[in-house]
Amino acid sequence: MVNIGHRLRNLDSLLNLRTGPGAAILPKDVTRIHMRFALRLEGGHMGPRKFFRENLPRLKFHNPTIPMIVQRNDDNAGPATLSIYFREATGSATAAETPWGITSSRVMDGSIEPPAPGPGERVLTINMRGAHSEKILKDFLTKTGAVAVPISPRDEALKRKLEELEVYAEIDRARVLKEHQDYKREKRMLEQAQSEAAALKAEME
């Protein structure tokens, strides 16, 4: 039987993935997304990395067929850009279906430019360098016209239930920790008493 705690963690992870900032449906004219930023945080790359870790997975969850390419590099002095590719009104570009996950790669050269738009495409680029992830997400949603996915009543109820269970779990962890500390203290006291008794016995012999 699957451990209850493990199941709850899985539920919490799934709930966090499908709800929250970044849970949005992209319009049909968005064909692909490309990100590039540095691996380290210095030089204004903290916001891009947070967007990559927290918001982009939710976007991918709700838009599984849209390719999302992430290019990370070692150049903290280089740019941090988010490129959004759109199908032109008269164009025929289509989003090639990709696996559910986000395609991520690491390159040494941060100056490598994002792919040029293909036939029937146009590209819009957001400068992420030095921006907070909230600002990046706001610009992204505004420029793409994405529609936020509201949390459903079922997920809202599940979220409250998980929060309640976490409170109980924290109380239980505190209880177990106290019991463990009490046991160790009593063990030390017993060992000390035994040591003192042995020393007293040795003196009397």
From TrEMBL:
GO terms for cellular component: mitochondrion; ribonucleoprotein complex; ribosome. GO terms for molecular function: structural constituent of ribosome. It is found in: Mitochondrion. Its main location: mitochondrion. Residues 173-203 form a coiled coil. Keywords: Coiled coil, Mitochondrion, Ribonucleoprotein, Ribosomal protein. InterPro entries: Ribosomal_mL43/mS25/NADH_DH, Ribosomal_mS25/mL61, Thioredoxin-like_sf. Residues 40-147 form the Ribosomal protein/NADH dehydrogenase domain. SUPFAM superfamilies: Thioredoxin-like. It comes from the Eukaryota. SMART domains: L51_S25_CI-B8. PANTHER family: MITOCHONDRIAL RIBOSOMAL PROTEIN S25 (PTHR13274), SMALL RIBOSOMAL SUBUNIT PROTEIN MS25 (PTHR13274:SF2). This is CI-B8 domain-containing protein.
